[in-house]
Write a structure and sequence with these properties.
Helix content is 6%, strand content 38%. With 136 residues, it is mainly beta. The chain has one domain (16-135). It has a 5-stranded antiparallel sheet with strand order 6-5-4-7-8. β1 (27-32) and β2 form a beta hairpin. The mean pLDDT is 95.
């Protein structure tokens, strides 16, 4: 595995099941047992109803491109990737996820809101896998 020199997430006890799932190439999100809504990012309270009655569920992660921007002026470490697409994907289960779009040029003619997308698991280190997306 090549050395990864970019910023990495720091899992916490509240987020560790999410990161563990990505390492297994599955997406886990919390779902409220009171209002039945999924949410992302992982947290102790449901952002929809305030309940603490939550469970981890496995979701497909498939969804649609909600919005995006093409970054031509990247932060340190991402220079070789520019231009690249930072996106918000609305997954079929409801939540919106901030991510990057891979597998296609960062070209507005190719990236249309509501385009179908699917998850890509990027094993960047032995401990961290990042969730990215590609057009379906």
């Amino acid at each position: 595995m090549a050395e990864y020199n970019k910023a990495l997430p720091q899992p916490t006890p509240d987020t560790q099941p999410y990161w563990d799932g990505l390492k297994e190439h599955v997406i886990r999100m919390k779902r409220c047992l009171d209002c039945s809504k999924h949410h992302h990012y992982p947290r102790a309270l449901c952002p929809h109803c305030g309940s603490t009655n939550l469970e981890w569920t496995t979701v497909s992660g498939k969804g649609k491109l909600y919005t995006y921007t093409i970054n031509h002026r990247p932060p340190r470490g991402w220079e070789e990737d520019a231009p690249y697409t930072v996106a918000i994907v609305e997954v079929d289960e409801g939540p919106r996820v901030m991510t990057t779009i891979v597998g296609t040029d960062a070209d507005p003619d190719l990236l249309k809101p509501d385009s179908a997308v699917e998850p890509v698991f990027d094993d960047v280190t032995e401990d961290i896998t990042l969730l990215k997306y590609k057009l379906s």
